[in-house]
Amino acid sequence: MEETPIILPYALDEDKKGWIKGFTKDVESALFFLFLEQECKRLFKKSRYASKIALVSKIYYSAWITPWKDGKGLVIDALELFPQAFCYDELQSFEDFVEDLERSRSGEEYLDTLRRHTFTFFSVKASRPFILSLISNKDLVSELQRYILHYKKESVVNALSLSPKVSWQQVSTFVKMLREAEAEIEALGSVRKKLTALTSEWVNKLKEESEKIQKEYQTLIEEARVTAKLEDLRVMYQSKVSELEKKMDEEVKSLLNEQQRLQSEIQQLQQKRSECLKMLKTLQQSREALLKQLNAPQSRRNEISNEIEEQLLKLENLKMEQIRLEGLAEEQKGVASELSVTRERLSKLSLEINRVNEVILRLKKELGDEDEKRLRLQEEIVNLNKQISDIEKAIKDLDASTVENKAQLASIPHQIEDFKKRRHDEILRVDREYRLKSDEVRLKIAALQLEMAIRLEALRRRIDEIRWRSNEITAQVERLIELKRSFIHSFYGAAIYLPKSLELEAPTLIQIPLYLVCFETLTERRYSLYTPIKVKQVYKTPWSKKLSLEIMLKSFDRVVKERLYEVMKQNYSFEEEVLNSCARLNLLRNHDFLTTLLEGLGQLKLRGWLSTRDADKVIAILSDFILPKTDKKWYESFSLKIRS
Asked: What is the model's pTM?
């Protein structure tokens, strides 16, 4: 089944706003000959020989465009100019895997299923190689995307359509293969989703079973504890420990209070000792002052005593002189003058003796006062010495009390440490008693806990293995999905968005027009292929414009045309076939083409794109280089029609 080909225009018009639209055939032909005029000048610019156009033949390059998905279509080179090797990976059947998973009635059966299918998705069943010629050049695909908007469906007339080497069946088979790969991706995704869901379901069931086992064993353990009254033992143990701790804490508290009391008492004793020392110092200073006062009267007393002795000695001398004078007076009773003198001297001696006695009395009285004063000072010194002795004794007593209190204070930490050690020993003893009584219960409980742990560990390992194997299979499935996606993705570069107006339902040929032109001189012949062109007006000034003709599909011109040249050079028979066919379809020998060209030049002139002078220039080229001289009457009629 092959539909009518999609024919793409050779020339397109680009207006000032960048909008592109197509031309009629006659305008297209006229524009192409204007383009040929520029090419002829360019190619033979340096040639000394005259050149002419010997062959102009329209060729259609064929490519398959086939609908794929999401409004996209694939573009496949129908001439196999760009052959590429691909491989389609066939997957192993995995229906049994899903059925076995769904039939599992226990976690063990589910795990066995995962074990059996460990390598179901490990590798592909087989790889089918095939050759496909894709147009995957990004720029070329983008150009075709814009170019195909100007399509029309019709048969190729008066042109060579290069026969496709890729058949409609091959393209259909390839698209079917892509859709099968997409269906396989969907099926693998469904398997992955099913596997994930069932794995999660069985993991949850096994977790519930683990919780149930744990609850059962917890009940048994609690029953064992209640039966053995382990809690009562623990309470009794805590009670004894609390009692011991309370007792020891009270003793420690008492010792700490005693320690605080002793510290306070020591502080008070030290304060009293300090006060006694101050008082002792004061008394000692007072005693030193009294001793100084005591020493002062003693020296005065000595002076008085010395003076009394001197006065007594003087008195003794005076008395002896008095006695001598009295004796002398007795002897001198008859001598009045000498007796008078003696008596006068005795009178003076009496006065002197009286005066000396008075002095002696005064000195003795003063000496008595000094003795009384000294006695009083000695009594005061004795009192002070007694007070100093009492204070020194008090200081010694205070020091003794301080030493005793410090000794008691130093012993308190050792007593506290002894209390703590005894408390620790008592607690250890109670703890040993408790442990001996509870070991039996603990062994029973430990056995139950061990049995529970073994069963839970078995379930945990089963859960872990289910998860691990499920993850491994999931990873294999994802790798296959990625493999298929990579296979499909390798064709994204050849996909374009199809216009909705195409309404393609099956692979269809698109025909891209080319012109094969042969230029001749006396010495050489050149063949050139010309790809579609784009026409736009270039304004040099607001009142001056120029018609610009340039290649529209630059990537096509660079990639496909060059590859077609290479194929023609490498395949001589293909080149001969193309050239001979093009020679038979030479438009320069077709009178209808001349009429079309004439009408196209007239249309260009009416549009203001071509002046009369430029039209005459094209006719001159046709007259001199294209047709024989016998057909010159055609050009005259062309010229008249164009001028009119």
From this structure: 0.57
